[in-house]
């Protein structure tokens, strides 16, 4: 039905449904219907219209300046989540005295909004809801809309993602005592958070000044002036000082995000005991210190992020009464000791990150009770030597155990982790071959085992993991040939549409509050109060272009690579490797590979980094490789390659001599060795008849040369025989200077 509707002109569609009643229409809600094209001018004919909601469509182009000129009865306008461009003159609405709600949240940054009216200083309306988000607001001054100073009945103000400059407009709080929702997130506000200490904003539910340039300390009384606050987000600023103790006075606080600031000091005990409704607490990337709390009253806490601070000591029991904990991240601190066995008492835990601490010892058997766990990061500790055999990994998707002290064979309990997307066992001391059960992990996209002591040949059952995008087996002891079946693996050839496979965003469910729109429409307006405290996205570390890179979030859908460097592989490079047409990185360096570079490598159209150095490759570099237009890093140093280098075109024009050194038989630019000797005539094979003549002349020369020496020798002998004085002088000289003849005499 809707596919047919979209083919019809908008005005014709409205006329078809409304018929002669359209002029008396008071409410028109066409939100989220997939309409396309420009806004129709026929809307201006609906003079009785009080509610107009066109949000969530695919309208494009400009918003006509005359669109609302005749619609003096409008109380509610929502144009959010479309693709408008050009400019909208909000000041043209200043004489719409009944207007209470105006919303535009653009899907792009191409819509310019000018909020002032030079002929009318103050509007005739008193707004309740104003949402101007993700626009180019008041360019080029980027000021806070000045008309807001005349508004005194605001309930919701959302001016996020607009690059607004200037100081924090705290006067909005003073002027609008019923304000419930105030968001200036992702702007360029500066200054300190200067809140009046003598007022109490008992209606305020959400306050968001995240991602600005606010500095200074938090007001010590912040908790007492917002007694009903449910969401406080001041993340990504430059706040300093300690967390105010008065935070504990906010009994209804659900989400607190102070991450990515310069806060210091310890966690206030009053906050840990007083914020009894807290659902999400995010204090990541600060300078907080001290030990973890030994007690808390956060019984409803589900998401706790204390990562990237300076907490030290052992992991305490302070959060044990948070029985509904789903995400715990205390990574990148200075915690020591063993992982406590009671960690398994968090039966609802889905995400656990203890990485980059000083934890040691074995993984406790308490882990066996964590049946819901789907993300586990214990990397960069001293944990070992293996995993408990009772661990339930059936729901595990992301497992990071790199840089620990795991030893022996790859833990067989991993065979049960059939949902794994990421398995990182790199930089441990694992040994023995890769087991056959690895083929059971059919959902794997990232398999990282570098820096271990794994040996034997690369097993062909790896080729059954067809979804792999990144495979890193570098710096082990693998020997034998490279399996030609590796071309059965995806390596980016089947890039799927975006899904939530790699995202650990939305870890905290989004809750909404509704605000009853007090008008004759009795409409409920979504307040968009979101209780998100998302963690970082899934992150993979992989060496490409000669440096270690971190890939995370959506980029993982497009990254692919194969690293077999630093092993003992032999034999030729299989030509089928050239079928990996979407791969970005290939590294076969520091092996003992022989044979030539396959000509099929010219099919690697997406390759960005190709390292074949330190092998025993021979022959020419295929000239067709100049077609690899994305190749940024190429090295074949220290092989036995020969012949002329590929023509210096496209990317090959950027590669210097350092890419080819250690191959003395290579020639051509950029090498100093020319493929044609300087000042030497080209070698021409002489005809057969000339060769025969040359051989005859050479024989005559040798006979004449020998005869001349013979005649000269006989002449000397005859001369000595006839002249006795010269003969005696010769014998005397021989007797004095040739000892063995003298002794014999």
From TrEMBL:
One of its GO terms (molecular function) is kinase activity. One of its GO terms (cellular component) is plasma membrane. This is LRR receptor-like serine/threonine-protein kinase GSO1. The gene is GSO1_54. SUPFAM superfamilies: L domain-like, RNI-like. The chain crosses the membrane at residues 700-722. Keywords: Cell membrane, Glycoprotein, Kinase, Leucine-rich repeat, Membrane, Receptor, Repeat, Signal, Transferase, Transmembrane, Transmembrane helix. SMART domains: LRR_SD22 (SM00365), LRR_TYP (SM00369). It is a single-pass type I membrane protein. It holds the Pfam family LRR_1. It comes from the Eukaryota.
């Amino acid at each position: 039905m809707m596919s047919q509707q979209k083919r019809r002109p908008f005005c014709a569609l409205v006329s078809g449904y409304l018929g002669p009643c359209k002029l008396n229409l008071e409410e028109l809600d066409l939100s989220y219907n997939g309409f396309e094209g420009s806004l129709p001018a026929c809307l201006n004919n609906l003079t009785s219209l009080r509610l107009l909601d066109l949000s969530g469509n695919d309208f494009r182009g400009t918003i006509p300046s005359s669109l609302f000129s005749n619609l003096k009865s409008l109380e509610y306008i929502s144009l959010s989540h479309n693709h408008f461009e050009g400019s909208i003159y909000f000041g043209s609405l200043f004489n719409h005295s009944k207007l209470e709600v105006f919303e535009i949240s653009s899907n792009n940054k191409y819509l310019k909004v000018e909020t002032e009216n030079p002929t009318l200083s103050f509007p005739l309306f008193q707004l309740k809801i104003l949402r101007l988000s993700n626009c180019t607001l008041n360019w080029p001054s980027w000021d806070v809309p000045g008309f807001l100073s005349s508004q005194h009945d605001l309930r919701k103000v959302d001016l996020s993602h607009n690059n607004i400059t200037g100081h924090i407009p705290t006067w909005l709080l003073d002027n609008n005592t019923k304000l419930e929702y105030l968001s200036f997130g992702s702007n360029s506000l500066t200054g300190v958070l200067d809140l009046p200490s003598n007022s109490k904003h008992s209606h305020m539910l959400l306050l968001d000044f995240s991602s600005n340039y606010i500095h200074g300390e938090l007001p010590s009384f912040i908790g007492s002036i917002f007694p009903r606050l449910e969401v406080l987000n001041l993340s990504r600023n430059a706040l300093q000082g300690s967390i105010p103790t008065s935070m504990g006075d906010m009994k209804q606080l659900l989400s607190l995000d102070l991450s990515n600031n310069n806060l210091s000091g310890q966690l206030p005990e009053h906050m840990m005991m007083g914020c009894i409704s807290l659902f999400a607490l995010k204090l990541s990337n600060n300078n907080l210190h001290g030990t973890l709390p030994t007690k808390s009253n956060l019984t409803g806490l589900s998401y706790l992020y204390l990562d990237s601070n300076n907490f030290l000591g052992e992991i305490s029991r302070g959060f044990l009464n948070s029985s509904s904990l789903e995400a715990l991240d205390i990574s990148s601190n200075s915690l020591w000791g063993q992982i406590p066995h009671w960690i398994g008492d968090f039966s609802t835990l889905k995400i656990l990150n203890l990485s980059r601490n000083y934890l040691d010892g074995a993984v406790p058997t308490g882990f066996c009770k964590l049946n819901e766990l789907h993300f586990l990061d214990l990397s960069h500790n001293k944990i070992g030597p293996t995993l408990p055999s009772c661990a339930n990994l059936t729901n595990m998707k992301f497992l990071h155990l790199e840089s620990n002290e795991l030893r022996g064979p790859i833990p067989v309990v991993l065979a049960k982790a059939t949902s794994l997307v990421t398995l990182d066992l790199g930089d441990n001391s694992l040994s023995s071959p890769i087991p056959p059960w690895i083929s059971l992990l059919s959902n794997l996209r990232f398999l990282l085992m570098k820096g271990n002591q794994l040996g034997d040949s690369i097993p062909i059952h790896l080729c059954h993991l067809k979804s792999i995008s990144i495979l890193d087996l570098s710096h082990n002891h693998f020997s034998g040939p490279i399996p030609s079946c590796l071309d059965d693996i995806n390596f980016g050839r089947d890039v799927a549409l975006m899904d939530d496979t790699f995202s650990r965003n939305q870890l905290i469910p989004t809750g909404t509050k509704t605000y009853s729109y007090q008008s004759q429409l009795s409409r409920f307006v979504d307040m968009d109060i979101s209780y998100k405290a998302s963690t970082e996205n899934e992150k993979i570390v992989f060496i490409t272009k000669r440096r270690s890179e971190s890939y995370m979030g959506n980029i993982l859908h497009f990254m692919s690579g194969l690293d077999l460097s630093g092993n003992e592989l032999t034999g030729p490079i299989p030509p089928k490797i050239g079928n990996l047409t979407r791969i970005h990185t290939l590294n076969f360096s520091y092996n003992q590979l022989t044979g030539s570079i396959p000509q099929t490598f010219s099919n690697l159209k997406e390759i960005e980094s190709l390292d074949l150095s330190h092998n025993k490759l021979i022959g020419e570099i295929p000239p067709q490789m100049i077609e690899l237009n994305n190749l940024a890093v190429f090295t074949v140093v220290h092989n036995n390659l020969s012949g002329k280098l590929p023509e210096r075109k496209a990317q090959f024009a950027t590669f210097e001599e350092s890419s080819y050194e250690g191959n003395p038989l290579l020639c051509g630019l950029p090498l100093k060795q020319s493929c044609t000797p300087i000042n030497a005539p080209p070698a021409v094979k002489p005809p057969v008849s000339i060769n025969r003549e040359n051989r005859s002349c050479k024989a005559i020369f040798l006979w004449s040369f020998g005869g001349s020496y013979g005649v000269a020798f006989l002449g000397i002998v005859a001369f000595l025989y006839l002249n006795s004085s010269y003969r005696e002088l010769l014998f005397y000289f021989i007797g004095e200077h040739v000892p063995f003849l003298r002794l014999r005499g």
